[in-house]
Each structure stands twice: as C-alpha cells, then as structure tokens.
What we know:
Blueprint (H helix, E strand, L loop, with lengths): L1 E6 L2 E3 L5 E9 L7 E6 L6 E6 L5 E3 L7 E6 L4 E6 L8 E7 L2 E2 L3 E5 L2
Parallel strand pairs: 2-11
Antiparallel strand pairs: 1-3, 3-8, 4-5, 4-9, 5-6, 7-8, 9-10, 9-11
Amino acid sequence: QVQLVESGGGLVQPGGSLRLSCVASGSIFSINTMGWYRQAPGKQRELVASITRGGQPMYADSAKGRFTISREMTKNTVYLQMNSLKPEDTAVYYCKMFDFWGQGTQVTVSS
Length: 111
C-alpha cells in the first residue's frame, strides 16, 4: 500500500507561481516514477509532468517552459514548480505512483 499526500495548492493571480509537493509513504523502498496530473471541471484527467526514478522528466506541451518537476529521494517527495500560471491551469492536481493516487490539491488561477 502506498499513500500519497499532495500540498501546496491555492489561489494565485495569472502570472504567479506555486510549488506543489507530493509525499509518498507506505510500502515503498523509495519513490518510483511519479506523475503529476490535473483535472479541470468537466474535463478528463490529464498528465502534466512525470519523473522517473532515475530523474528523467517529461512534460505535457501545456507545461513545457513553465513547469518543473523534481524529486527529493531522501524525503520521498516530488515537487511541481509552476510558474507563469494561466487561468487554464486551474484544476485539481493529483500525484500518482504505480496505481496509487493522492487526494488532490486545488489550484485556482484567477484575478
């Protein structure tokens, strides 16, 4: 069993920044490939970024150049630094590892 807990969401103005965190715990030796997903109202959940156990990142086109995924292995934590946020980034953001999901954290970009 794996538990994932996200934090760091909130309300931010367009152009602002947020850093999301996802802490993994439970039956894991260390964090494996982890992904950040988001789901906006009325839309399907989509992959935003992922990072392999070896540290290789991957970004959706919507995130390239604005978001950075990173991880801190000693803390079993993965981060998503989001800069230049846009209203269309508004969504609930989830982290996923294996088949486990966190509870999500709300990100709202609005003036």
